[in-house]
Structures are given as C-alpha cells and as structure tokens.
Amino acid sequence: MAAEETPPAPLRERKKQKTRAAIREAARRLVVERGWEAATLDRIAAGAEVSPSTVLRYFPVREDILLTDENDELLEARLRARPAGEDPLESLRAVVLDAIRTALDTEPDEVRLRARLMAEIPAVRARLTETTAMTGRRLARALADRTGRAADDLEVRVFTAAVLGALRETTLYWAEHGLADDLVDLLDRTLDTLRTGPALPARP
C-alpha cells in the first residue's frame, strides 16, 4: 500500500504561514541590504505588504522575526524519542546537531545572518539569550521525564542551560571568526569540552 499523504494544512493556517514567511523575508532583505537599524517596523510591514499591526501580531518583539524558527516543539519530540537509557549529553548532541545540520542545508544564509547579528547587535544577543532560556526549559522537562526526575529538578535545569549556553557561545565564536569554520564540528567539539573540560597543555 502506498503511504498515506499528509493532509494539507487548513487554508487559514496556510495563510498565516505565508504571512509569517513574508514578514521574515522582508526583514531579512532589509537587514542584508541596509543593516539592522534600517529594518524598522514600518519598513518591514511595507516590504511584506501588511500593516505594522500585523507584524506586531505575529512578532511582538522585532528581534524574533529573524531569531525564532518555531522548532522547539520538534526538538522536544525528538529528544523524547531518543533511546531509553542514553546518556543525556549524547541525546542532546544528537538532537541539536541534527537540527543545525538541517538548518545549514536548508537555510544557510539565514543561519549565518542570525549568527552575525548576534555578534554585532547587543539587542539581538540579549533576545537570543531569552529565547534560548525558553527552549532550555522545554528541553529540561523532556530530560526530567527521561531520567525520572522532577520537572523543576535543579541538576536537570543546570545541565540543560549549560549545554544550550555553550552552544550559543560557540555560535558567537563562529561569527566572530568570520563564519569560516564548520559550525557542526565546532558544536561537536563544544559538547566534548563540556564532558572533559579543556585539555591541559603537554608538559615539556
């Protein structure tokens, strides 16, 4: 039997997705062509052919237009689906690195633009810290369930925050060094460092 096709999203939802995509593209185009400060609410709205109030309805925080990707639910589902008993760090490694590989394959320009803005614009960096914390709380709940701990367990919260904070810092390093290295390799090294700490220099 042929596999069942996924039913198309309802018309209303497709229109919402189209509007969100148009707003994102208008903002991205403005930032690339004219810089972050030029990407005002009114200009983004004009570029997307919507009203400023529509932009605010979809993105109450301007920085979120380019930072959010709505993948938190998928990340949580994939984390919950990892093999039972797997080391928590390896579970997060598999889930996060797969998400980054996919993003680099499907939207490499957006990944690089976000990283550059994070390095150059303090407001973007601050907002990314906030959204990363929100992602961390969601993933911490999944890890707590997988390890039999309480949803607000201190060790789970600290561990998840440390991993995501380290990955954010690695992305900043990547941007500060010209986006030249392989980001996935850098992130993989980062997770190794969290497990072992930095290697001590060889003694003469």
From TrEMBL:
Highest taxon in the source lineage: Bacteria
Key word Transcription present: yes
The entry's DNA-binding region: 40-59
InterPro entries: Homeodomain-like_sf (IPR009057), HTH-type_TetR-like_transc_reg (IPR050109), HTH_TetR (IPR001647), MftR_C (IPR041347)
Keywords for the protein's UniProt record, in alphabetical order: DNA-binding, Transcription, Transcription regulation
Residue stretches making up the HTH tetR-type domain: 17-77
Name the record gives this protein: TetR family transcriptional regulator
Species of provenance: Streptomyces gulbargensis
